[in-house]
Amino acid sequence: MKICDRLTIFSFILFIIFNGVIVNCQLKRISTTNSITIDNFQQQNFLFYPIASNSTYCNYDLSFLATDNNNNNNNILTVNKQGILQVLYTTNTSTSSILVFRIIGSIILGSNISTISAISGIIQADYELNLTCTKVDVSQLTLTINEFIKFDSNIGYYSSIRVLGIDYIFNTLDNLNSSIISSNGRSNNYVFVWFDLKFENEINSIFTISVVISGVIINLTTKSFYYNVPLPTTQYYDIIPQHVNGSEILEFGFHYSPLIIITCDSQTPRPYQLLSSNSTRYFTKPMMGRKGKLIFITSFKSIYGFNNFELISLQQDGISKISIPMNIKDFPLGSFGGIVYSILKTYGTGSTDMPQLIPLFEQHFRNNNTYVFTSNLYQLGQIYKFDAGWPFGFIDGNNLIYNHNSVFSRPLNYTSSHITYIFGTSLTLGNTPYESYQSSIITTISSQRTNPILTSYSYKRLKGKNSNILFTANIVSINGVQNILINNYVIYGLDTLVSGSNKNGTYEIVFNLAYYGFFDFSCQDVFGNSFYYTNNQIISYNPLLIFKVPDYFTNSFNVDSFDNIKFFKNNLNLLNSVGYNTMHLNSSTIDPDTPLSLILLDPVSMSYQSIGGSILYGSFPIVYDSTLKLFTCDFIVPRNNLFGEVPYYIMFTNGIIISNQLSPNSPKLIVDDTYLDNQGPIFKMFTPLNSGVKVNDINQYGYTFNITDDFNGFSSGSITVRGSIDSSKYVFNFSLADALYGDKINSQYQITLPISKQCVSQTYLVTNAILLDSNNVSSIFNLYSNNPDPTTNPFINLYDKGIQSLYLNIVCEPISLVDQGPQNLVSFKHSIINSIIDVGKTNRSITFDFSINSPPSGIKDQQSPIVYIISTKFEKFECVSQLTGVDTVYGTSNFTCTESLPVGFGYPGPLIFSVYGFINNAGYYFGHSTITIAKLFPSSYYVDTTLSTSEPIITSTDSIYSTGGSLLIYGRALSTTKQVLVYYSETGSESTLIQNTTYGSSAVLINPIAETKKPFKIQIITNSGLKSNEYWVNPIYFESPIPPTIPTNPPQKCLGNPECGGKSQGYCSPNGCICYPPWIGTSCQSKVILVPPPIVNPSEPSTNLTTNSTNNEVSSLVGVISIVSLRELDINNQVIKTNRFEKWNQTNLEKNRNIYTTSIKFSNNINDCIVNVETEWYEKLTNISFANQVLVMNPSTLKYNINITSYPFENKLNTLQLVIKAKLTQNNYDDDVCSGQDFGNTVADNSEYVQLSVKDHSLYGRFVKRAIVDGRLLSINNIKLDDLDDESNYYTSESYIGIQIPQYTNLVQLDPDFGLLVDSSSTDSICRDSSSLSRAAKIGIIVGCVGFVIVVVIVVALLVKYKYHLRNLKSEIKMKRKQ
């Protein structure tokens, strides 16, 4: 054992030495040599720069490894050092000790020597540490500044300062004005923010910033933002609501303060214009108009009481300051101050109350104060919390006085101490609820104190249009993992568990680097025990494991990191036209895996972002294109935008580069022709219908309203109406199509509430409204919400009338029946067998059926009780029920609901149920808590959870444009994906794609998705045949600014006699003959014939098309199509490598559709090239789409869809050639047969064709001149190959066709098709001898030939018989000649 321990320590030290991490000369031993060592194991640099440019000290943060290799006495190894010392890792064996520690502190300029001591028992090792704080050599630096001061909506007025000549990045630049010049993330760009008052008296001034670096003052000059800029000459404003100075104005909803709208004749998109109060200044927001007449808006913010505001603006004739006194009254909130009593108690294990239950705790209180539709906060400790509005927890009463009861599972880590429970409004002041109360109770169950262990981890950058990585971690936890945190605030649950269990499992997290960065990783178990690791921290030494993030997570950037930036469109016309554009960024220094994003800062895009709740909403990923060797970004500038330059951010991990910080020569995005519409639709009129009129059977009750949107036009909206007494809720969704009259600019609508005669008098009010225009600019109103934007309120036109104008007063006859108390729960059951639900399966459906005693006044119409499903981790899920019927015999009202739980929901632990939201017609509501259900129906108040990891589940995808291309699919159990079925709703067609790349179990990349403007459906099939859920993807419409090269064929002469087959077969166009189906060919002389579907070949995608000869039913013709090989060609089109397809795997997809897969293997660990061939037989005339082209599939046509994945080209100039063989054979050789071939261009679809003829039939193949290459549409060529021997003769016509494939990176898609024709005429090239003679002539020739042969035979026989006589006769003749 001791030998093993020594070997472990020795191996660890060898690892350090052989990785170049030896004791630095600036860290040296000064004590007598002994067994204790201190090592700079992370190759840290001991040279530091000041944190600020003119600082006289430097900060340091270093980690070291202390080792005692002779710790036989099991002494504890410790370290002494002045300053902050933190132990990061420690371990002991019987013979050795290891201690990893961190020291943090500051040193002055120059060399700083200190001592570090490591102590084990009585042995001490002292080391001298020499750290140097270095002055920056200013002579080596170059500082630049923008020529003009810039403006940013998030920053204000600023100047960008670049520091070149040093790799180090200061946190701040010092300057003589004591203002902070901050570093812009991890870059050499620094931002100086100007106080906007500078411009009020110095419009055309040149300003100076005095930067101080190492005691040297560097003066930088820049010009005013308004330097020689034409200023407005006229300006007027409106205050909404109109008021008398000093009169009190009630907010139009919580934090919906008054507004001011300013109109001016500005020639610049950003005139100097702001609202000021108590040293707080607010910039106005561009809302409407064009150059020369712009409208701006801002709010007076929620500064309550009497305040004096000032509207400050720069105009041609000088500074304008207008005093605006304002007395704002805050909108009233409900209060928890009316709580009469509060109870917090426990149930289940460890409690005397109902100990048979699972561990629960209950909160109960009674409130005499009015409830006003706020969302409530339920919180246990700091981690467990959720928001829920009415009806959760409301067990009986009405909004004037109510009882509240909510039950939760007891998290294990709270059972050993106080349970502190907080209840309050979710409206916050900072991070604190406006109103809340808390209570606590002590419990007795003990917890466990063993931390979880990280055994391994890895990172994988995901391809596709995203900024995501896949982080994989293997974690062992005795108690079971509860959650995982990245950067100590992004929380992940057990839905990230992909294999094993929460006690020993593998977790995969898809994480967006561009927005969050990745700095630390932690994990918490069910008792709250945890580990926490930051970059370069040791996790374990045996085996050695250090937590380290990839370099591209933390690399520094600056504007010089980009060699070139290019837009395909620099000048944009956004007048009713969307700015589709592409950005290319070239960089020789940035890692291709670096996540980057483009954030547009035009006012409309920023409106989108504010709706999304964060800057993520309007961002576009910048991804590396390995084919172009460039970073690329397809992005969209919204139409009807602000004129002038479009600013943008390039966002990287933990930092940004602002477009105005780029080189002055960098291209700009300029909007020329436009009209700004940055205001969503608004209500011109909003009138309650029959408000205050006693309810009867004749009148309708609701609202009539007009919606206006002066430029983009109204598109759709939603309005929520609530009852002030019983909290009843009605949601109305509507669109332009629902208008009573009008158009998108001005239209009228009406909504009605289902008010019955048996009712309670109360006021109905609008609590939520959202209106969208045709450009997705929205107007939003939420009566109670945190930080609303008053400038987007659709009720701006009603401010003068006040919020009371939205009140609908319903007056009812008093109800004689007493119906105040809650009705008993008669039944409650769920659908989960054995009360265990697997939240890792595709089917996570749960159904609830329940009933109550019907209230005497009846159940209120169109109001749905909600079953709440709550997990131990305070996760909440709602199941909204429907009334299925009222049983008048038993006096019950019956309800049901069905929902599918989110993946991993609640695991590990139980899910408990409660039901709230019953409303009667007397104005009272009620519900039943988990405890009530447990008492009445003990088998139905909860279910346990399990989490399987084998069934594939699609949870989301990357965004995809309508132009198609690659798509990254996210989910679970995707590692064994075999193929993805894609259904296109636009065309009704289907295709099967083979997975391109899988990323663990959590993601799979497919390519290519076809171009489509409408939603398409995907489904994954695994190698074992398991099918995932069906998932719909909504593409984002995009028009590529780079027009694809569309191949077109040259015009052809119209052939045929009659021309083009006559008027019934085709007609002559300027480009050649256009044929009517079923006729085909250059002269419309060939006709498509119907043949049976071919028999599926299970061995290879070789297909036989068979038909009978027209004149002889016995004789048949066979057409054969084969995929032969894939050849690599050099730049001279010479074949350098031939890859033959040896073994195919065939799968039947459905009737007449099959898929074949083979692979080409390579050495040197290169991934296989996968060839996927899908064959589809069309039985009827069908239009399909391929590569932006509509192709007509005739009946009895066989289409091949061919996908070829990444191929390792031997040379960057090489290409590929896919060889296809087509063959047509006549089986009866004795018949009159001729064969022929023709290869040329089609007319109608700009393709190429091959036509193989035998007798009066043809095999016709069409080869489109387009391919989808790495998601892009490219033009390709198809050639007839003469270098391959064919078997053509008089009864067989055979040809090899080569599809020329350009060099690519990921995937190429091809789409040829074939069919059989009958020919009216053909060109013969190979015929049997005299095969053109008639049959009688043939017989005559045969008879003559036979007779001739007989004569020849007789003559020969006679010659043989009489050869002696002939010889004598010859001799006699000779003698006579001599004489």
Q: What does it look like?
A:
InterPro entries: ComC_SSD, DUF7034, DUF7035, DUF7743, DUF7949. This is EGF-like domain-containing protein. Keywords: Membrane, Transmembrane, Transmembrane helix. Pfam families: ComC_SSD (PF22933), DUF7034 (PF23033), DUF7035 (PF23034), DUF7743 (PF24893), DUF7949 (PF25820). Helices cover 6% and strands 48% of the residues. With 1379 residues, the chain is mainly beta. It folds into 10 domains: 132 residues, Immunoglobulin-like, CATH 2.60.40; 86 residues; 95 residues, Sandwich (Immunoglobulin-like); 248 residues, no CATH class; 86 residues; 118 residues, Immunoglobulin-like (Sandwich); 129 residues, Immunoglobulin-like (Sandwich), CATH 2.60.40; 81 residues, Immunoglobulin-like (Sandwich); and more. Strands 87, 88, 92, 93, 94, 97, 99, 100, 101, 102, 103, 106, 107 and 108 form a 14-stranded antiparallel β-sheet that branches. Strands 27, 28, 31, 32, 68, 70, 71, 74, 75 and 76 form a 10-stranded mixed β-sheet that branches. Strands 10, 11, 12, 13, 14, 15, 16 and 17 form an 8-stranded antiparallel β-sheet that branches. A hairpin with a 2-residue loop joins strand 95 and strand 96. The N terminus and C terminus are likely disordered.
Short structural description:
The protein is mainly beta. The protein contains 8 helices and 108 strands.
Sequence-ordered SSE layout with sheet pairings:
Elements: H1 2-18, E1 27-29, E2 36-39, E3 47-48, E4 57-68, E5 77-80, E6 84-92, E7 97-108, E8 110-120, E9 123-133, E10 142-145, E11 150-152, E12 156-164, E13 172-175, E14 181-183, E15 189-193, H2 198-201, E16 206-213, E17 216-223, E18 235-240, E19 248-250, E20 259-264, E21 273-277, E22 280-283, E23 285-290, E24 293-299, E25 305-315, E26 318-329, E27 339-347, E28 360-367, E29 376-380, E30 384-388, E31 394-398, E32 401-409, E33 418-425, E34 428-429, E35 432-433, E36 436-442, E37 453-461, E38 468-476, E39 481-486, E40 490-492, E41 497-501, E42 504-512, H3 513-516, E43 520-525, E44 530-534, E45 537-541, E46 544-547, H4 551-554, E47 564-567, E48 571-572, E49 579-586, E50 596-600, H5 603-612, E51 619-625, E52 630-637, E53 644-645, E54 648-652, E55 655-658, E56 670-671, E57 676-677, E58 682-689, E59 701-708, E60 714-723, E61 729-735, E62 741-742, E63 746-753, E64 762-773, E65 778-782, E66 808-810, E67 825-830, E68 836-838, E69 845-853, E70 866-871, E71 876-880, E72 882-887, E73 892-900, E74 911-919, E75 925-928, ...
Parallel strand pairs: 3-9, 19-26, 48-56, 68-76
Antiparallel strand pairs: 1-9, 2-4, 4-7, 5-8, 6-7, 8-9, 10-12, 11-12, 12-15, 13-14, 13-16, 14-15, 16-17, 18-20, 20-24, 21-22, 21-25, 23-24, 23-57, 25-26, 27-28, 28-32, 29-30, 29-33, 31-32, 31-75, 33-36, 34-35, 37-38, 38-42, 39-40, 39-43, 41-42, 43-44, 45-46, 47-49, 49-52, 50-51, 50-54, 51-52, ...
